[in-house]
Amino acid sequence: PRHTVMRKAVLSCLPPRRFAALEPGLREYARVLVDRVVREPAVDLVDEFTFPFPAFGAFSLIGFPPEDTDLIRDWCRPRVLLSYGRLPPSEQGAVATRVVEFWQYIEQFVDERHANLADDFTSDLLRLHDADPYRVTVPDIVNIVYSMALAGHETTTNLLTNTVHALLSDRQRWDALRADRSLIPGALEEGMRLGSPILCWRRIAREDVEVGGFVVPAGAKVLLLFGSAHYDADEFDDPEVFDPTRPNASDHFAFGHGSHYCLGAPLARLEGAIGLELLLEA
Q: Nearest-CA neighbor of 146 among 266, 59, 264?
């Protein structure tokens, strides 16, 4: 029940104008990165473009100071390792210390924003709190910002990287997009289907349910394999073929579904379109 309340609060602070206002800054930042990439004979695309670009976008939305971008990015890796990795005991303490530093930074950032509201997502959440302290609390906001500081860019890095890889695996695909930029949205959806930014997620069955002739009992832990579902031949014709004109490519689960559908989907699509467009122009 608490999730529903917090989700509505977050949604109210992410109107279309909030994403649209980011576009000029995103384009300027991405162009600088692309110009740097094309000057080199060989580059690591993740390090030089597909990681820093979405990170800049997510941090701009939240309202983090631009000068802290590298610091926050450096904190994200230990957080992923601690939450989802299998660190040996000898490394857990040092990594956990870095994660605590990250959490404390977020707490301080929210406190400072509360004292000096600005035109950003965090400030809008704090305005909601000031208007109705019980709808969204300050600890809620710290949790939300902490979550979005990672979730707002890591998956978009995967989206851009996987899509560019799929396009360059067959140069005809890349050349087709260079000749017709209207294919970019379809290429992004197909990129999310073919190379799902998140391969799987976990759920618990609320009731007995039959799937493919097998009964999943209530309370069972379920691992949803998005990466497998996206290759379902009953849903997608020739599922292993990258086709930017595929009419149902957007039926993928890359952004989740239902009450947990990704709130940052508009930003991911915007960053993906800008990124592909500028790379194709280079």
A: 59
DSSP H helices in the chain = 2-12, 16-38, 45, 52-62, 69-84, 89-115, 121-131, 138-151, 154-168, 171-179, 184-194, 226-229, 265-281
DSSP characters for 93-151? HHHHHHHHHHHHHHHHHHHHHHHS--SSHHHHHHHHHHH-TTTS-HHHHHHHHHHHHHH
What secondary structure letter does DSSP report for 50?
A: I
Provide the 10 A C-beta neighbour count for residue 61. 23
Whole-angstrom Cα distance, residue 123 to residue 119? 7
Cβ atoms within 10 Å of 50's Cβ, excluding its own: 27
Tokens representing 188 are: 């992004």
Residue 152 has pLDDT above 80, yes or no: no
Segment 163-184, tens digit of pLDDT: 999 999 999 999 999 999 999 9
Between the alpha carbon of residue 158 and those of residues 94, 112, 134, 192, 236, the distances in Å are 27, 32, 36, 9, 22
Residues 6+ apart with CB under 8 A from 56: 26, 29, 69
Instruction: Quote the CA–CA distance of 55 and 63 in Å, as a whole number.
Output: 12
- pLDDT digit string (tens) for 201-232? 889 999 999 998 999 999 999 999 988 999 99
3-state secondary structure of 221: strand
Q: Is the dihedral of CA 259, 260, 262, 264 positive or negative?
A: positive
Does 78 score more than 80 pLDDT?
A: yes
